[in-house]
């Protein structure tokens, strides 16, 4: 490489850093650096007022020795929520994207309507859902009653309450999934679809053998994003069930919030946050490893 | 356009952006300066802050104006209002942690104990007992110095309390041929209450069309207290609520949910009450504004148990942080805000029952279109048959453990969802509290030790509540 080329490369690099500099600085300042005090706090007993007391690994010991039964319960509930929400949400997102991926008149309005719940406050969504799932006055049970079916007490039973929260979350986020998949669909080469059509491939065959492979990077991204998001579910739970009935929808972040801001055990809550970070890191790493088997990059 | 031109498009844009930036900066600076009160020379400024919705914030501003006129102008003390919109008590705690609170700060009463033991707020006993500038406590309700006391010491002042009582639908009562009691002394017995709940409930098959009662889990404290039990035994070394009468009383109350006389906690009570499908709901007085104008309602006492009448009031309380610029001026401002003029503003808004008894009994508080029996609220701060209507409940770390085990959290949630038998609820709750007592080596002297350790007790031998 000549001296001139080196200077040019440096300038290009500098320009690149200038572009990403604000984002990197912001991420470091507001995302990465705050993790460090959280890590330190997780080894203390701190109520947020008095000076923290160093307690070593006692917070972690409390979690993993079974002294806090809600730790395990909240993790299991979060896993149930994630398993129920992420795959179904992505499948619905793909289905909706395929449906609205055409130039029919009024399609823009339909897309906007599907996207609307995503930009609606989750608190409003939660309040409305409480009514929709009300056993006596809810729309769902009213519809079921018209067929002679007595609907369950949706938010009064742990399993159905979790189902109600999952359905609400899917409804609230389906617009986001749809838009991302819609963007992915624009990257599917028309020529390949046409070639497959000429070769006699049917609609389903074209989707599974041409479109879907091209969508796998998009699906993978959604999988990562939605898994992380589902581990952080909080607002809907707070509004719809308050973690109940019993501990039926008591999820991880709800537990963290309760420990931090109701019991003001900042040290323990920080330890919970660090464990969540580790869990998410592990889940994302596993997903990344497995992606090599099914994600197709052009 | 040539580069030499004076008004190139780029320059025009640059100057426009510059002006816009200057405008934004100027506006921001003006906004920062907007809180300047402009007090005359020689006056002392006391900042006062509280979270609250716009109506509450307006009321505080009116209280300040009233207190100012009544006594503070004479002391040359000016209260400067620091608005804090919303309902975020956690952010108030962050202000304490960072030392940025107002000179006079309204806080959640559950936080007083921790703030005191952490040495963040001033002990007030001495100032309250000062013969010139202190309080004439005979003029205030009995709970004034006991409700939020920390181990008997005063670290806060509570100018009013939001009383809890049963809101009832008068038409549903009339249809069922029932007449509600109008004072705590005449509260229904449990048997009378039980009959009423069952008469008021309308069922079709196994579904309930109209509920007789709705209550929250915090009534459990009152029920246990009413059964003659206490939260802690043996100088606070053991969790209470172990009497068989407590189990019976709580189980009876929970049976209303199990048997469909009361809705489970996931059901929104307000639309039910507004829709005429709920006869009685146990609520704090701030829900009045949310009740539909179509509902003819009033308030009545919770039933008395074999031992006492009972309720559980809520108190937001006011403290002087140690960072206050002039603690004496802050105390005088606090006292003025508990005075007659400011209390009348609170009474007229029916925001809370004023602790100043004469105002709580005055027309300012009682003469409203609804409720007709505002005295039920007012009496909630007093005594009946020599016993407090408001349930005493421990504070501090063991109080938090009690609340977490019996009132909030999954144990209580399980009970009122019908997922847990009452005996198991009590056992789990007691086990958790006893574990906390053991972990802390807690006893009746530990609280004072914590206060001393945190440097909170400036006057350990002065205790208003002891007088």
Automatic annotation (TrEMBL), chain A:
The keyword Transmembrane helix applies. The keyword Signal does not apply. GO terms for biological process: transmembrane transport. SUPFAM superfamilies: MetI-like (SSF161098). Signal peptide: none annotated. It is found in: Cell membrane. CDD domains: TM_PBP2. The chain crosses the membrane at residues 16-36, 79-100, 112-133, 163-187, 207-226, 233-254, 266-286. Belongs to the binding-protein-dependent transport system permease family. This is Carbohydrate ABC transporter membrane protein 1 (CUT1 family). It comes from Kribbella rubisoli.
Automatic annotation (TrEMBL), chain B:
The keyword S-adenosyl-L-methionine does not apply. Keywords: Signal, Transport. One of its GO terms (cellular component) is cell envelope. Residues 1-30 form the signal peptide. Pfam families: SBP_bac_1. The keyword Signal applies. It is found in: Cell envelope. Its main location: other. InterPro entries: Bact_solute-bd_prot1, SBP, TAT_signal. Belongs to the bacterial solute-binding protein 1 family. This is ABC-type glycerol-3-phosphate transport system substrate-binding protein. The lineage of its organism: Bacteria, Bacillati, Actinomycetota, Actinomycetes, Propionibacteriales.
């Amino acid at each position: 490489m000549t001296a001139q080329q080196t200077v040019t490369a440096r300038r290009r690099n500098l320009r690149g850093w200038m572009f990403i500099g604000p984002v990197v600085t912001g991420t470091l300042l507001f995302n990465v650096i705050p993790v460090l005090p959280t890590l330190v706090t997780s080894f203390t007993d701190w109520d947020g007022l008095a000076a923290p007391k160093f307690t070593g690994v006692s917070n972690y010991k409390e979690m993993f020795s079974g002294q806090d039964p809600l730790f395990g319960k909240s993790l299991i509930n979060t896993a149930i929520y994630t398993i129920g929400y992420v795959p179904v949400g992505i499948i619905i997102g793909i289905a909706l994207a395929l449906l609205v991926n055409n130039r029919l008149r009024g399609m823009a309005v339909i897309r906007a309507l599907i996207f609307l719940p995503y930009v609606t406050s989750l608190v409003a969504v939660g309040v409305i859902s409480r009514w929709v799932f009300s056993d006596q006055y809810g729309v769902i049970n009213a519809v079921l009653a018209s067929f002679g079916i007595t609907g369950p007490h949706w938010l009064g039973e742990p399993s159905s309450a979790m189902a109600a929260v999952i359905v609400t979350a899917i409804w609230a986020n389906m617009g986001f999934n749809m838009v991302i998949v819609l963007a992915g669909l624009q990257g599917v080469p028309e020529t390949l679809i046409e070639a497959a059509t000429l070769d006699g491939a049917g609609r389903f065959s074209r989707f599974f053998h041409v479109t879907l492979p091209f969508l796998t990077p998009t699906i993978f991204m959604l999988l990562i994003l939605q898994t992380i998001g589902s581990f952080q579910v909080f607002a809907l739970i707070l509004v719809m069930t308050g973690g109940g009935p019993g501990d039926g929808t008591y999820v991880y972040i709800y537990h963290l919030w309760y420990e931090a801001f109701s019991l003001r055990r900042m040290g323990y809550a920080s330890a919970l946050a660090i464990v969540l970070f580790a869990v998410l890191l592990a889940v994302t790493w596993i997903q990344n490893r497995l992606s090599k088997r099914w994600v197709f990059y052009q | 356009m040539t580069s030499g031109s004076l008004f190139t498009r780029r320059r025009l844009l640059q100057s426009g952006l510059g002006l816009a930036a200057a405008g934004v900066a100027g506006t921001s600076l003006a906004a920062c300066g907007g809180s300047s009160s402009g007090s005359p020379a020689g006056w002392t400024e006391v900042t006062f802050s509280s979270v609250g919705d716009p109506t509450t914030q307006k009321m505080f501003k009116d209280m300040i104006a009233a207190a100012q006129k009544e006594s503070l102008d004479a002391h040359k003390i000016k209260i400067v209002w620091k608005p804090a919109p919303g309902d975020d008590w956690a952010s108030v705690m962050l202000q304490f942690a960072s030392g940025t609170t107002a000179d006079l700060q309204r806080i959640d009463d559950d936080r007083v104990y921790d703030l005191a033991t952490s040495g963040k707020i001033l002990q007030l006993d001495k100032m309250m007992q000062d013969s010139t500038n202190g309080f004439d406590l005979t003029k205030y309700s009995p709970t004034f110095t006991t409700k939020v006391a920390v181990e008997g010491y005063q670290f806060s002042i509570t100018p009013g309390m939001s009383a809890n009582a049963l809101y009832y639908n008068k038409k549903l009562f009339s249809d069922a041929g029932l007449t509600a009691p109008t004072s705590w002394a005449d509260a229904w017995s449990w048997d009378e209450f039980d009959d009423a709940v069952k008469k008021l409930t309308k069922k079709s098959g196994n579904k309930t069309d109209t509920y007789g009662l709705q209550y929250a889990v915090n009534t459990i404290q009152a029920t246990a207290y009413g059964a003659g039990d206490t939260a802690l035994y043996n100088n606070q070394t053991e969790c209470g609520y172990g009497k068989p009468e407590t189990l019976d009383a709580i189980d009876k109350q929970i049976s209303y949910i199990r048997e469909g006389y009361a809705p489970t906690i996931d059901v929104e009570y307000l639309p039910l009450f507004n829709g005429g499908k709920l006869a009685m709901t146990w609520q704090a007085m701030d829900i009045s504004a949310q009740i539909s104008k179509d509902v003819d309602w009033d308030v009545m006492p919770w039933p008395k148990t074999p031992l006492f009448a009972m309720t559980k009031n809520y108190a937001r309380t006011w403290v002087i942080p140690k960072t206050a610029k002039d603690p004496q001026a802050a105390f005088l401002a606090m006292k003025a805000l508990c005075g007659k003029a400011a209390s009348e503003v609170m009474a007229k808004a029916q925001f809370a029952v004023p602790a100043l008894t004469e105002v709580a009994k005055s027309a300012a508080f009682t003469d409203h279109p609804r409720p007709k029996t505002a005295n039920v609220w007012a009496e909630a701060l007093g005594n009946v048959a020599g016993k407090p209507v408001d349930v005493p409940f421990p504070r501090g770390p063991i109080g938090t453990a009690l609340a977490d085990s019996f009132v909030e959290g999954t144990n209580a949630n399980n009970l009122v969802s019908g997922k847990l038998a009452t005996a198991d609820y009590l056992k789990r709750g007691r086990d958790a509290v006893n574990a906390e007592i053991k972990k802390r080596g807690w006893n009746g002297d530990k609280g004072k030790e914590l206060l001393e350790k945190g440097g909170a007790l400036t006057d350990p031998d002065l205790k208003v509540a002891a007088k």
